[in-house]
Structure formats: structure tokens, C-alpha cells
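User: Let's play a game. I give you a shape written as C-alpha cells, and you guess the letters that built it. Ready? Here's round one.
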């Protein structure tokens, strides 16, 4: 029988105790937020990993759908921007890049 070590910080909802950096969520879907309220700009085609992709940059203003950000020293609401790359025929998502602004 294999026993997994207990992680008290998970039981207390403190996932930030073991995550070094980057975005984490509490169940909200980033892609859903972007598609439901972002402002998109088509940037054309580019090659990604040997295949053609279309690039769309997006901006999600803090006032429309702000994200709560917390870090040592404070917290606050931020917007989000980034880009998504998709297959030009099927529009399947290839890559999503997102930054808090």
C-alpha cells in the first residue's frame, strides 16, 4: 500500500505556501474570462513549432473583469493581457499567454 504525505497547507486552502511563482486560480476559468469579455486584435499568421498559427492579442481591462492578485506586501485588482494562438482551419487553441497588468 502506498501512502501519500499529507499536505496541511492544502487542507487549510493555502496553496500559495508551496507555489513559487506564476498564476494560480481558485476555480475561475481563465479562457472563459478572456472569451467572454476581452478586446481582441488580430495579429496575423506565424509559424509555431513548424506549423502555421493565427495570433490574436487580447486585453481584459480591470474594470470589466478584474482579477484579484495577492502577494507578500499587499493585494489588489488587476487586468489581464496576452495572446492566443490557434490553428487557422479548426481554430483549436495551440497556446495561451496571459499576464496580469
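Assistant: Ready! My guess for every position:
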Amino acid at each position: 500500500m502506498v501512502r501519500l504525505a499529507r499536505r496541511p497547507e492544502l487542507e487549510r486552502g493555502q496553496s500559495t505556501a508551496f507555489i513559487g511563482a506564476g498564476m494560480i486560480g481558485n476555480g475561475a476559468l481563465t479562457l472563459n474570462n478572456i472569451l467572454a469579455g476581452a478586446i481582441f486584435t488580430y495579429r496575423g499568421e506565424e509559424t509555431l513549432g513548424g506549423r502555421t498559427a493565427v495570433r490574436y492579442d487580447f486585453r481584459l481591462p480591470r474594470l470589466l473583469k478584474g482579477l484579484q492578485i495577492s502577494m507578500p506586501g499587499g493585494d489588489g485588482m488587476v487586468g489581464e493581457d496576452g495572446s492566443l494562438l490557434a490553428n487557422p482551419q479548426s481554430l483549436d487553441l495551440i497556446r495561451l499567454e496571459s499576464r496580469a497588468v
